[in-house]
Amino acid sequence: MDRREFATVTALGLGAAMTATTETQAQATTIEQIRARTLGGAITDVAGIKVGHFSDARRPTGCTVVMTEEGVTGGVDVRGAAPGTRETDLLNPTNLVDKVHAVMLAGGSAFGLDAASGAMRWLEEKGFGWPAGPTKVPIVPSAILFDLAMGDHKVRPDAEAGYKACEAASNNAPAEGSVGAGTGASVGKLYGMARAMKGGIGTASVKVGKITVGAIVAVNAVGDVIDPKTGEVLAGARTPDGRQRLGITQAILKGELPPSLQAGMATTIGVVATDAQLTKAQAQKLAQHAHDGLARTIDPIHTMWDGDTIFALATGKSGLPGNMMALGALAAQVMAAAVVRAVLAAKAIPGPGVPAVPGVSEL
Fold this sequence. Notes:
The chain is α+β, with helices and mostly antiparallel strands. The protein has 7 helices and 16 strands. The protein has helices at 3-11, 20-37, 115-125, 159-167, 248-253, 280-297, 324-345; strands spanning 50-55, 62-78, 85-86, 100-106, 130-132, 135-137, 142-144, 186-187, 197-198, 200-208, 211-219, 224-226, 233-235, 269-274, 298-299, 309-314.
């Protein structure tokens, strides 16, 4: 029974005949249907890309590293109004350095930027970095999300966490959901954490001809996550009783204005990558295109309370120049799919002081 049929049955007064077990089975079927029609794959399908997670066992937080230790072309685009970033100015096409060796995505708000130092240490030990006089300096751009409301705020990713994420990095498909940078992520926070749902990290890829494009994203938005196929809310703000999805934009249109929030208490961060050969300017444009994927799946997006940031990496391993028209379209598609996969895989993580934010399959 699909959702429309269920609504019809309920309107006829027959909804009471359905047991809780049947409702759960119907919901599970719907989730599987959404997952089946969403792009699969992983950013590690792009040659030259590795991913490693670190999830902190003390509270829901962690970090995720996207490794490109040999150095690849990088770009970035920041759309949110409250970003927490490191080494983003370096990626401006007018600036000198044209290679990055890793990108770090972390929880912990601005404290989590320290995780990038751990990646630098790991890369330095292995001899990777930008030649600089007597040494090599690893270039590790980074962005963070706010998860300090999930348990003990004094526990956050540090340099050791970043180092451990690098040790775990491989070209295998990375885990999705409540892991790495997505461990403490939540969505739909516009009406407070008590009415939010669980966010997480997701990944997807697509290959067209000889070119592959992949994405990974930690979804921690103020807004709702939307199914781009139907416009339905998958995860987001719940009604005051916590039992149903509210629909933030529709609620605002009805005059249900949100309370005042502190800037920076959300943020969605991610990476889009391709094996095409790109310049720094093209990489920056690819990151811009990937934001279209966020706009298709998160509503509202790029708010005053989000620091939405997307990095772009071009490994050039295909040996082919990139067609920016095609790559832009693909970047938006894989980023949108990664957002959906993130919330479908996310599960609540209980613990001391951790708000009860259910995952899609748990509501």
